[in-house]
Amino acid sequence: MRSQALGCRLMLGCQLVLACRALSGGARLGARRLAGAAPRVAFMSTTVGAPAAAPRRTMVRTLLESDEAIVSSPVLIKGWVRTVRDQKTLSFINVNDGSSLEGVQIVADAEGTADYAAVMARIGTGAAIAATGTVARSQGKGQLYEVQASSIEVVGECDDSFPLQKKRHSLEFLRSIAHLRARTNTIGAIARVRSALAQATHAFFANEGFTYVQTPLITASDCEGAGEMFRVSTLPAQLSAMPRDESGKELDFSKDFFGKPAFLTVSGQLAAETYACALGSVYTFGPTFRAENSQTNRHLAEFHMIEPEIAFADLFDVMDNAERYVKYVVREARERCPGDFAFFGSLVDKELPARLDVLVNEPFERVPYTTAIELLRAEIAKDPSKWEFPQVEFGTDLASEHERWLTESHFRKPVFVYNYPREIKSFYMRDNEDGKTVAATDLLVPGIGELIGGSQREERLEQLKLKMRESGLKEEDYWWYLDLRRFGTVPHAGYGLGFERLVCYVTATANIRDAIAFPRFPGGCEF
Amino acid sequence: MRSQALGCRLMLGCQLVLACRALSGGARLGARRLAGAAPRVAFMSTTVGAPAAAPRRTMVRTLLESDEAIVSSPVLIKGWVRTVRDQKTLSFINVNDGSSLEGVQIVADAEGTADYAAVMARIGTGAAIAATGTVARSQGKGQLYEVQASSIEVVGECDDSFPLQKKRHSLEFLRSIAHLRARTNTIGAIARVRSALAQATHAFFANEGFTYVQTPLITASDCEGAGEMFRVSTLPAQLSAMPRDESGKELDFSKDFFGKPAFLTVSGQLAAETYACALGSVYTFGPTFRAENSQTNRHLAEFHMIEPEIAFADLFDVMDNAERYVKYVVREARERCPGDFAFFGSLVDKELPARLDVLVNEPFERVPYTTAIELLRAEIAKDPSKWEFPQVEFGTDLASEHERWLTESHFRKPVFVYNYPREIKSFYMRDNEDGKTVAATDLLVPGIGELIGGSQREERLEQLKLKMRESGLKEEDYWWYLDLRRFGTVPHAGYGLGFERLVCYVTATANIRDAIAFPRFPGGCEF
Description:
2 copies of one chain form a homodimer.
Chain A: H1 2-22, H2 26-35, H3 60-64, E1 74-87, E2 90-96, E3 104-109, H4 116-121, E4 128-137, E5 145-156, H5 171-176, H6 185-207, E6 211-212, E7 218-219, E8 231-233, E9 262-264, H7 269-279, E10 281-289, E11 302-311, H8 315-336, H9 338-348, H10 352-361, E12 365-368, H11 369-382, H12 400-410, E13 415-421, E14 437-445, E15 449-456, H13 461-470, H14 479-486, E16 492-498, H15 499-507
Parallel strand pairs in A: 3-5, 6-10, 12-13
Antiparallel strand pairs in A: 1-2, 1-4, 2-3, 4-5, 7-9, 8-9, 10-11, 11-16, 13-14, 14-15, 15-16
């Protein structure tokens, strides 16, 4: 059965290669010639048949998701070898091209594959190949199709020092080879899901009529939390060359690129507010920076935030939008990356699928902060010794153990806690009538804790000035922010979502450094 | 006719306000109460009718694009007043909510609009209002519909110092009030088109199976062009507090956040290559930085690049992809922002529509660099005095006047120039067989010049090492980049597109500082 099929394939393969060459004239051939590449023909044939249609490259995912009609079709697969199993004159090569978690099995043998022995001698884990062949029903389990190769071109061999030879590596080790780790199942899957979430983010906001605003990263006016900001400068790094002020004792920032000290922003919110107060509904999606000296698995020095801002909206509009957003992007990502989610659900966290089902199908809980405090007090009273921070009362900034109990144990689903004490929240959040709370909300999710922080913004000029004074902020530093309250002020509200936390949540990734291509953290700035 | 309509409206309006109040219980009322806002009812009515359906907010664009069936429907419009024309007991208020360039005309009068005089006394340019009323066919020209207001709520008055009182302001003046300028026609339109282009960018690459990779902005290994990079640091800015090395003469960067000098990246390409060599086709879309001391209208210190990178691809694949990309996003933006494009085409540049038609409908030109040189030499020979740089020969780095002649005068469409002399191009570009050129391409477009720069990357380890030596680069700084050539190297190619230049091109914007929300340039870091 197999050998007969191979015979057919051989003939077809020859025709294909010839056809391929015949059709590679014009611009394409020109390109090759100009680019200096020799024509890549894996073998010469003495059998001349009528030219068949040359196979264009088929992505592995396309092949694996095809219906039965693809069986017996000629295909050209290009990708990287994950594994090779040799059986004397027969080899099974798993090839992955990054389009899906699953690779496709290429079957090569002495009888049907040109230059079998010579080619296989050059192919090991990590090599890049281009395999021409015919689709067959797979004899192995787990896959519908495989490719019986008539010819294999070795595009790029792989040096023996390739660090991904073994099948399993610790995520910690993989971080040391971040330039290669996307070639592994886990990191490749996270990268694809992250991309799907990001692309779905833009689709969601486009559908909802939001304008995407790319707010600046370099800022001179971002005073809040300046202690944890990175300074941006073009002043020379040599002490002797640094410009000094008249006293000779301090740096002269008037000589710096922007004529004054500049920093990397910690949030695009204030800038986004200016655009919301012109265009209505806007969002940012870009990097933000925190110079925190924190080596936890939950913090990065450079991370990404999605910050929607909606004019003529209140805190409940924000909760509505945030809930729709999270449900939409998770649904989309699952639809677009089914193989990756199957992997996470079977090999990383068996409870993930059920957790995501709850997320997309059930309404999120909404609970006022005061109620959350009551729930916690009642629970803690049962056995205070179980808690690291048993003292909980109005004014307490909820600790991670409190947040996680609410979302993981009590409600067992995402929870918006809202109307926090004004003392523990930012100056720009809108005072509620009770004089004690502000219109702020955090979305807590199982396994992560806080995923989203949002609020209605203080749109009343005098109240905002008062709150700025209370926070020790100078009006002159925020003149433009205050202008929004002078010229047609409107109720408006928004939220910020930490994108890497969303990626961790959705992919059951424990360390945030694995949720981003090249993580930045104290002492960590490689690649 | 009008007064009869107004009578009907009055009744309907009363019912609506009452219904509105009746339906505002539950979560929504809760939100208002918690957020401390008084119920906003513009007038009390003594006419009690059966509650009608409360009008939800209608966006201006939705209204203007509705079919005739909307006439006589109740609507609630929220937005900012652009202009008010008063005629004794009748006022025409143009309200814009940012959803489109066009505002909608709200008609208020003493007879039909509650508290007419009192309300109108508080409404001027810049004020925020919420108008409840009925849709009518517009009596004026240019618009199909207007809203006859039964009640108008003044959401936020506008201080007399509002700088956008006049109808026309110079773009230069608007840059000084960048926090308000999106409320003007021109900047609002650019912002919407920019957003549409950005969202379409993600849609395009999602459709083509590309993975979005957010490459890091803070980098320690980006050695190319280090002279024009911003330094990123958390070292103290006080001279006395700066940590010093053993000699006491230089800064000790081991004490800095990353333990060594760090910078803001000038390109995500090298990082994107690592992901392309794992996932196949990837792209970045994020900010990049250039600390050039340049005050031109074509440069920004912080701008955005789209950098696709494709494995198993050559220079012609890149041209194909770039051409599809530009056509797709321009087509999408025109479809989604017809009003904005009508504005650019009528008030900014009358030739823009024809130029964009050529762009989306005709194939781009492709011409080798050597041919471009021949064309230029022949043209310059006719009258060298017309040229600032008449000396053109193989090896010349084309000046702006050369590029613009090619795309604007000779081909009159976008042109890919390809296969540039290797001496004037970067180390990572693939050497062609001729020994003189590299597989690089620039896309030149009318009115802008270079929009895209792309190349096939040097995937051969030894050639790459040679080119790095020629460029004075150290192998140890690029060990991870070289690894890609050691472990299953593949032909790959990519390009970089300056997003703000694309925005300028598509919107006929002359100064790049108007193509971004808050521009950063030497001495410019406001807001």
